[in-house]
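Hi there, hope your week has been kind to you so far. Thanks so much in advance, here it is.
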Amino acid sequence: MNQPTTLKRSLGLWSIVMLGLGYMTPMVVFDTFGIVSGDTKGVVPLAYVVALVAMLFTAFSYGKMVRVLPSAGTAYAYTSKTMSPHLGFMVGWASMLDYLLLPMVNALIFRIYMHSFFPQISVWIWVLGYVILLTGLNIYSINVAARFNGILVLLQVTMIVVFSIIAMVKLHNGSGNGLIFSIQPFMNSGVHFSTLMMGATVVCFSFLGFDAVTTFTEETPNPQKTIPKAIVLTTLIGGLIFIIASYFAQSLYPHLSTFKNTDDTLPEIAKYSAGVIFQVFFFASAFAGVLASGLSSHGSVSRLMYVMGRDGVLPRKTFGYIHPRFRTPVFNEILVGIITLISMSFSLDLISSFINFGALTAFSFVNLSVIAHYVFREGRVKNAKDINYFDFATRRFCFYRFAVDIAGPRFLSFRLIFGPLLDWFIWPCKHVSLQ
């Protein structure tokens, strides 16, 4: 009897980390700089520091679940196996709002970039070519897609390093705040807790995607060891890149009055830093970021759909199919490409709000899955250390749950990111968890 075709276990640790970094898009720090700087009153890197610490807590929860359930189904699989297939069904569909819509966001950004350079050419041509390229790479081979993604990520990181060097030279010569090393980008008299949190709701979008590396669990030889490391490394490296880039941008441009358009400061940061030629290369790196994020997100959602198809949540013959030669979920890749084309009919604001909701749901149930598995299935609460860990996870889930009930879209993002830092103060949840 022939064995069913499965995904090919060929991705190493750093290939997965690079896919995660590609998903996060390092260059986005310059796009949102003006918005975050205005919200935080000039402490953009501090907002990234707080967000990084918070997201590391959730990364640890993902790591714990991967060790016991090494499945590409991520939050959907954890919920289905530890609690209920019906809950898993709900979480799977909510998670797909995050994974399925991000390729649409990248397609929209790609359309905006190309239309600004070539307004005489129909945007449909650009989007169609973009979708065909990413779909073809993901179908042909995850290894080829990963290598191409790695090149795009390295291009972004190289450009950020070049910008940092230019910024240091200009700071040394008296530009900006005139100091290469300064606490001013992290602290100044105009900063308040509320303004810091407001700006940090924007940077939360930069971190969405670190969890997507779990969708490649079934394509690495030793997932219980590799994936937890990849999740933490992706979060940590991505966060450090954001912090360093935003530090030099904040030091060099401490006042927003420098910019004509604060909604997207990337073009002006590049031009004011080193002229028009540097701006062209900067744009090329931003373009590479869109391609890398689109490539990673396209592959991630295809694998989530594959696991849901394999489990019978979606039609098994179609969504659970793996091509025998390419060892990739071909139908899912094509379907994601078709759905991405629909992005032409939506706005960035609408799609982003759905993505935040999907991520919130996934993060919530990953934390709850930790409790369901380790506390109720294995009875691991045996000492003070265990009680503290699971009490923390329960309060984190409750805090996210409160966000769904009472928060608007922007404050919901605040709950999503800063729940892990603030939920220690949610007294009612402490009573629930200790029961």
